[in-house]
Amino acid sequence: MPLGPTILERLNRARADLRMGVPVVLTRPGAAVLAVAAEALDAPRLASLRALGPGLTIALTERRAATLKARAYDGDVARIEIPAEAGLAWIRAVADPAQDLANPMKGPFQTARDGSADLHRAAIRLAKSARLLPAALVLPVTDPAGLALAEGLTLVDMAEAGPALDLAAPLQPVVNARLPMQAAEKGRVHIFRPDDGADEHYAIEIGQPPRDRPVLARLHSACFTGDVLGSLKCDCGPQLHAALGQMGAEGEGVLLYLNQEGRGIGLANKMRAYSLQDQGFDTVEANHRLGFEDDERDFRIGAALLRQMGFRSVRLLTNNPAKVRMLEANGIEVAERVPLAVGRSRWNSAYLDTKAAKSGHLL
User: Fold this and answer.
1) What is the structure's pLDDT at 195?
2) Nearest to residue 287, comparing CAs of 237, 361, 358?
3) Residue 33 has pLDDT above 80, yes or no
4) Active-site positions?
5) Angle ∠(105,132,65) on CA atoms, nearest 5
6) What is the arithmetic mean of pLDDT over 312-337?
């Protein structure tokens, strides 16, 4: 095996660079660009980008472009030309909706419509997967390999990386150990690490559930605010403890704790969404203003973990039909959907109603 990084590893290296504000070089046949995350950009790097030549744009999702009333000629992506006089404040105001209500007039915007948006789209996808705002500055370059070598930048061939972006990285078991819990003394925690070095995911196994019949299971996405702090804005904490409690009562089950905070947008972006909710937007509207979809999670990870542990059929504790569909599409039979309607309060009733009305949750 070559010593150099695989395409999955290069993609994760590119994500780490974007989080630090370091540009990455993205290529496809006949084209190459420098891409840098808008929220991590600083003034010196902005000046350096401009010194390399013309054509600097900011790539946004169609969701964010709709909020800004900017045309998304490429359907899911808008390529907004950055005026010569625009500084960091303008770029951040375009990328981050925090001050939208205070400064509603940012345009008019000039958006590109010629040429391919494939590399702009790739830059946004990388920013999203790095848990950053889905906004990236993109600059065409003519000597990508030379630039990457001279500046020590990560270079990713998107013709090779495209399929890898669509795949969940294989997960490898790291360790498992016995853990007595309040919900069940016979507990065991399994740690799984993806091959690309991204976030680890956990499986909490209660008892010794047989693999030849449906197991009581839950796919639970990490929620620091609900699971740890007892937030009243969501129902995550009550769902976590109710699911473990039911597994303990039945003597067996498996709960997958997936590191997909904030429906897959990360804790920082979830807090941005909460700030927008304080301005009067519901949970779905807040995600859209940030540039995200309603739900950015990848439930294929859950299906892969269940298969690795030897489970092929589940009684799934969920109110979300999307989880049922995704598991079944990835080879896990859902023998029964077990409702988990707990934790409603005056603080989160509107949130739960929005999930039911706009995201199809069965509440």
Assistant:
1) 86
2) 358
3) yes
4) 295, 297
5) 30
6) 95
